[in-house]
Batch of 4 targets.
Target 1
Amino acid sequence: MPKVVDHEDRRRRLAEAVWTLTVRDGLEGVTLRKVAAQAGVSMGQVQHYYGTMEELIRDAVARAVRALNARIEASVHAAGEASAETILRACLHAMLARDEEGLRLLQLSVAVLGRAVSDPSMAGVLAPNDGELVSFTAGLITAARTERGTTSRGDDRIDADICWTLATGLGVDVALGQRSPEAAMEALDYHLDTVLG
């Protein structure tokens, strides 16, 4: 009986090897040979799944972005039937690494930023224009203001966009060791208190 191969698992392992190497050596230090060694597979296997190094890196970054998004979604589900403000804070706090996996994902994102500056397609993978997330967050801001009994002082979509920009910037600080997750959370919560009134 032929062996059943889990192709998605192999791609995931190769992507995770890219994550590890990028965080350790920088994106310029990632080679197909190093990825194969890190993943414990042959060069042929890497080349079977990815025709070029660019294709492999693009897929690894896209998977990292999806993993960060999954952390945000998980925080929403964990909040359950909580208030809009609690859900809002949980979503934004998900960008501030408080565990090893979250920190690794943030560090990978920072390491890839240099490539994104000169490669618009990589910028699109790393920072997709996520109007849906901004709309969802704007709705939470509106609902949280209603819960608090405060009125809108401007455009909730712009406030939502600024909140994500701040959370992302604070996440970069955490990834670079410039700020602790707790200090980043304190700054983010201060801003949210100002936004919500």
Target 2
Amino acid sequence: MDLTNRAERAVPLAKAERAERAERAERPERDVLAVRAVRTDEWAEARAFRLDALRDPVAPIAFLETYEDAVGRRDSFWRERTERSARSTSVRQFVAGLADGGWAGSVVALVERRGTVGAFGGPSAYDQVHIVAVYVRPEHRGAGVLKELFDAATAWAWSLEDPRVERVRLYVDERNGRARAAYRKLGFEPTGETVPVDNDPSAREFELAVARPAA
């Protein structure tokens, strides 16, 4: 395992986090109106938000997709994906809407049936929901937006009847310490399961999960 390269990668990330905190302190925060499911006609907003997320300094260790891949996708791709995220019973996107019509943050919740191939490969051992595409804009971090998004996603997961979801899980890159701490604060605990990072086999993604609350 190349610890030198990993340390070198951590330096620009640390600088980006310091710059982000300084920039956030200088900017007024806009009010978040509500956390809600995405609407079918919001494909352009979904596209713009995703591209912004993929330009974030931490994007290389937070997302499996690159900006270059996403920016070349046709409008029909974004329309179809947004409509599915609004209407399907197997996937739901939640957004934190702003007064100006923009989004402060977003998460996507995917249903994974027991025995079917999950988002990271291999058959799922549970009927579960997998949270992906987590992003909160820098100026809204630390203000409770992430918790509200996760509350909405997990409430939707527990409301499903077919399947009756046993747990909600996510994966986080071992180099993304800030995200790991935030998820644990929300009740997601390491399960001991790890998978290699696609573009860096020397790094690992940790699985974190929260079990269905007792009745």
Target 3
Amino acid sequence: MSKMFRSFISSVLRVTKGKKRIKYAAIYLAVAGALHRLLVESRRERSAAKRLQQDLPVAELGQMKLEPGDIVYTPSSESTYYAGHMGIIGLDGKVYHVHPYGPVFADSLEWYLTRFYEGDRFIVFRSRLNQAGQRAAEWVHEHYKQVKFYRLQTNLRSIERNYCSKFVYQAYQFTSGLDLWSRRFTRLNQGYIYPFRIERSPALEVLGTFYK
């Protein structure tokens, strides 16, 4: 971004040399670019550095004692097609997740983590409601074979046509009545349950953050 700004401003200055009005515009753009780098880009860099300091190596995730119903979330990245991805821990300790090539996979945690690229992050959540995770995991075992197609469908009641975050949402909604989205559209049983919306749910607590 900064190189683009410098290049653009240099070209403007060359073309508009001697024209005060346009010079002022070039100065304005230069200042705006500097402020953008200071207030936006530097903040993003600091935020990324801070996360890296807080995150644990992904090997530590493999050592965690995960419980049925725990959610493993990977934020937007190249390996998740910039949409994010999530799976839910089943009664057998495997990660159940709806996937375009699935439609549902039941992976060991070790194998699940190999699906992601170096530099990806993982956030592990657990329900704050007692026994909700256990009931969600039981529902997953009873219903995952009903998923027939990977589809970004708005019908929140449909199990047959599903995607990763909607499947996790259903596991909690259909068993404990826990709404991990908490938006008015869920009352109509319509909408898209994006992974980052579940990430923000007050019904979940963060167990840990990790990087690969």
Target 4
Amino acid sequence: MGVLVEGVSGKYPRDAVQRDHEIVDDDDVVGWRSTCRCGWLGPLWSRVASKDEERLKERRAFVPYLGFATPPLSAEVQMKEEWYHHAHERIALEQLRFAQNVLLTAELRLAEAVANSRATGLSWGSIASALGVSRQSAHARWRNSE
């Protein structure tokens, strides 16, 4: 039994498949942390030696040294919540970037369409009517697109 840990210290046997990982004995595990594919690392949870030392709010979890290094369920739930918080922030930022990219692309396409419309001889009044704006605002916004 053991836990697959990234890195090679030389103290533990290497994993047969992931050669840059070692299999650490369960009783040598000193803590845990959440990770994400993006490279994010959650805060370190420490393994404490007794139930009296356990403080989940301080990320200190008791797991007896009986050959099992899995954090207690209550700690796992909190680690997942930390990851969800990270993931939701990342998703929100990606949505903002995507929406901004769509907006910039649409603005470029609109300017190009206005320029093409002017090149075919359409008046500012016709363009403004098609876009639902005043002739003056259409001219002020896209007069440099011609």
